[in-house]
Design a protein that fits this description.
It is a single chain. By secondary structure, the chain is an all-alpha fold. The chain has 2 domains: about 180 residues, no CATH class; about 70 residues. About 75% of the residues lie in helices and about 0% in strands. Helix 6 runs antiparallel to helix 7.
Amino acid sequence: MSRPWLYSLTIIIGLWFSATRCGGLLPDNLAEWPVNIWCWGVFGFIYKSTDRRERIEMLTVLAFATPMELFFSEVWKIYEYQRGLMPIFVPAGHYFLFDLGRIIARKFDVRLAMPILIPFIPMVAFGVWEGTDTSAIFLLAMVILFTRFGPQPCLYAAMAWAALGMEIVDVRIRRADYPEATSQNIFNRMKTEREQEAKEFRAEGAEEAQKIRADAEKQKVVLVAESKRKAEALRGNGDAQAIKIYSDAFGQDEKFFKFYRSMLAYENTFADDGTTMLLSPDSDFFSFFGKQDGKK
């Protein structure tokens, strides 16, 4: 069997086998293991039977593509795998996709490398417009730059189409044959992750609110203390000025000042019609009732 057919059948059957648990015949925790064994068996067979140059290429693809795959799926969260972490067969599949793209690239002229990427532009633009795939514009820009300035433009263009084809096959398989239990597990995991994120956001919000309240309370205490200090200073200054005014007035005309203070006392005392006082007529309080100078 030629390599293109081997790679194509491995990708299509492997995705179906893993996604559907071989049509529901295997438990979910064992569904990927036959695919893992087959993919790494094929990878090992090719590695053993090929020359030194291709072996280096195979190891290079593994060393470069595997960390990038983990970054895109686990850090950047561009996509999520059916059962959590990246399946074991994915690194081997990277080389299958690379070699398939290389074989396809030999079939067309280098002048077609850029034009065959044009259909990706409206697809990516639609994903960005709908908000379903905002990261694809970055990946498309990388592919265009590699195709335009890289040493093997046909390879990059062919790999882009091979990756798109694999993604379409994978999505169709998952949508057509997704087991109910698996769907529920994925939904529960996504729900748990969203709830965890919501808890983290609420905790961060509560912490920030506590900081704001503490800062506001601190500012309140400072402002109230400063206001009281200023009020006390103003009140003391007012009292001092009042005392000075009284002192100056008393010094200018002692008799008039005593008369004026007595009149104020009479006014405040007899303001209420029901006031009753028991005082001696000779009391100092009535000193101005007899004589103008207040003398007895």
